[in-house]
Amino acid sequence: xxxxxxxxxxxxxxxxxxxxxxxxxxxxxxxxxxxxxxxxxxxxxxxxxxxxxxxxxxxxxxxxxxxxxxxxxxxxxxxxxxxxxxxxxxxxxxxxxxxxxxxxxxxxxxxxxxxxxxxxxxxxxxxxxxxxxxxxxxxxxxxxxxxxxxxxxxxxxxxxxxxxxxxxxxxxxxxxxxxxxxxxxxxxxxxxxxxxxxxxxxxxxxxxxxxxxxxxxxxxxxxxxxxxxxxxxxxxxx
Length: 238
Hints:
- The protein contains 8 helices and 7 strands; from the N terminus they run E-H-E-E-H-E-H-E-H-H-E-H-H-H-E.
- By secondary structure, the protein is an alpha/beta fold.
- The protein has one domain: Rossmann fold.
- Strands 3-2-1-4-5-6-7 form a 7-stranded parallel β-sheet, sandwiched between helices.
């Protein structure tokens, strides 16, 4: 079993919960960070911590609590994110600021928070969960698409900053995934989306988690600065 901690933000439900489960099964000491301070109901994680990734103070305190209670952080999966969809001409400042602050600025601050310890250890894994929307675009999601596209610049810049210390930084870009959110789509919208996906189906959350497991593992040590889509061909590699 790994001795370092693997932190998964937003790991209490959806894709994050699937990632947490998969990593626990693979032998990682997983600590889930979520606003509620809870983890997946059906997974025995090493620990949980309350963290709001839109708040710099909450990130700082949450990471400090993790290191104090569970030890050094060897891997970060920055998965927590939100949407506040609207057409741009109707989009409020709050809808812009909250999404960018949570999805993009929050991920940058998380990376900064774990980088120092990884540099000391001369090893580390950072995986940022983006979206096919970040590079394909989506009407009504200018704020969300911008925040997810920005993660590519974050990862590639950090890959150059941290690579000499044995730290890898990669982006996973899921397409449409079977979650509570997509289950609420009406049949017409669902059929429209499926018609644009060459594989003709949504991904399962476990398929996203399988790639994350690989990227935080030892066999992915020579992969960094990469953007890897798991979207059934929707973006065709962007």
